[in-house]
Amino acid sequence: GVEGELFLLKDQKGRAFLVRLREGGVFHHHRGAVPHEAIRQAGPGGRVQTHLGEALSVHRPTLEEYVLHMRRSATPTYPKDASAMVTLLDLSPGMRVLEAGTGSGGLTLFLARAVGKEGRVESYERRPQHLAQAQGNVRAFWQVENVRFHPLALEEAELEPEGFHGVALDLMEPWKVLAKAAEALMPDRFLVAYLPNITQVLELVQRAEGLPLRLDRVLEVSWREWEVRLPVAHPRFQQVGHTAFLVAFRKWKDS
Ligand code: SAM
């Protein structure tokens, strides 16, 4: 049946809509309606038309598309930043990653894909509503059972010392969990924090003093989209502006 399958529809203006198919369901666009059954028949890479003649392309959502369009409680880590965090954390299949806070589960999905089915993401979120949203979001996109959701502030977690290949933090006051997270990190591995404000970056760097963490780098990911519709080709007039700073620390070995 059509039940449950996840699609992304794109209209003529490039606007995207996530659709989860239901038996007898109908997708409503402001330029007309399409039965879910027609979407299923068109399939990924196909096209459908609304009853008012708007053409829509039919896709499986990419991870980036999914995170930008999924339901959110907290603002997800922007995909360009989440993918950079995977690189900074140097994640590979089979690794164990610690994450807080889970938020809407956007970053969780990037981490879960990077460590694969033999790996593990242990994700902590102190707000139950956010955690419920994140669990729903993650399970709707990613069927692999490699994420464990913990309804706890990271401060309250019981963590195996040096049990993690990486730590990813997207929360307002990461300095409050820094000592704990550092202890859970394996030597020579990375802790990466996502911080919208430079004042947070400075506070975090200062609070890392005395911990077995060496500041490795602070960076922003700039991602400039171009409009290419020949003969037009120029940077888009509307761009995503500032998202956040990424701060990476590397753990010293004891002694
Ligand atoms: N990275 C997430 C995503 O991609 O969807 C978004 C994270 S959101 C900006 C920050 C989350 O951290 C909030 O849901 C908040 O409740 C949670 N949080 C804040 N402090 C926390 C703590 N000490 N332990 C666990 N979660 C915390």
Largest sheet: 7 strands, mixed
What small molecules does this complex bind? S-adenosylmethionine
Q: Provide the CATH top-level class of the largest domain.
A: Alpha Beta
Mean pLDDT: 96
Radius of gyration using CA atoms only: 21 Å
The count of β-strands is 15
Assembly of the depicted chains: single chain
N to C succession of SSEs = EEEEHEEHHEHEHEEHEHEEEE
Whole-number tally of structural domains: 2
Query: Widest sheet: strand order?
Result: 9-8-7-10-11-15-12
Question: Which structural class best describes the helix and strand composition?
Answer: alpha/beta
Query: Do you know the CATH topology of the largest domain?
Result: Rossmann fold
Share of helical residues: 25-40%
Spans of at least 5 consecutive residues whose pLDDT stays below 50 are none
In DSSP terms, counting alpha (H) and pi (I) runs of 4 or more, how many helices? 7
CATH architectural category of the largest domain? 3-Layer(aba) Sandwich
**β-sheet strand percentage:** 25-35%
Primary descriptors:
255 residues, alpha/beta, Vcp-like ATPase, Chain A, domain 2, 2 domains, seven-stranded mixed beta sheet, four-stranded antiparallel beta sheet, 7 helices, 15 strands, globular, binds S-adenosylmethionine
Describe this structure in words.
With 255 residues, the chain is an alpha/beta fold. It folds into 2 domains: 6-61, Vcp-like ATPase, Chain A, domain 2 (Roll); 65-251, Vaccinia Virus protein VP39 (Rossmann fold), CATH 3.40.50.150. It is 25% helix and 31% strand. It contains 7 helices and 15 strands. The strands form 4 sheets. The protein has a 7-stranded mixed β-sheet. It has a 4-stranded antiparallel β-sheet with strand order 2-1-6-5, with helices on both faces. A two-stranded antiparallel ribbon has the order 3-4. Helix 3 runs parallel beside helix 4. It starts with 5 loop residues before the first strand and ends with a strand. The mean pLDDT is 96. S-adenosylmethionine is lined by residues 74-77, 100-101, 103-107, 124-127, 130, 153-155, 170-172, 177. The site of S-adenosylmethionine has 23 residues, from helix 4.
